[in-house]
Specification:
Radius of gyration: 16 Å
Order of helices and strands: HEEHEHEEE
Number of strands: 6
Largest sheet: 4 strands, mixed
CATH class: Alpha Beta
Number of domains: 1
CATH topology: 2,3-Dihydroxybiphenyl 1,2-Dioxygenase, domain 1
CATH superfamily: 2,3-Dihydroxybiphenyl 1,2-Dioxygenase, domain 1
Strand content: 25-35%
Amino acid sequence: MTSPSPAVHQLRVVVEAEDFEHALTMYRDVLGLTELAAFEGDGDARVVILDAGRATLELANPAQVDMIDEIEVGRRVSPHIRLAFEVDDTAAVTDRLVANGASLIGGPVETPWRSSNSRVDAAAGLQLTLFTELDA
């Protein structure tokens, strides 16, 4: 039996960035997200769409969030929404982000599910988990 075509074709997270240039530099130039499109409008309106690879929506109950925070950071720190990026080298990407203004919260640590994870507060008020699958 085949499943029907998905009704959703793309997840796009829209983030308002007070310091637009800093956020653009951090996510495009430092983290390495590819710029797909950019648009300008009246009144200095600007938007840049960055490719973040495959998107998923991870829903977690409070107990799971508590467990992940304890493993990655040692205490509860997660906001309501946190972005997680799979990267080739968690430590190197974390170091680059911190060198460019992100604040280290925790890690890198090896998780029980065999990934190397770190946590940073990054541009535009976003908390990020950076992870590398160790068994990939």
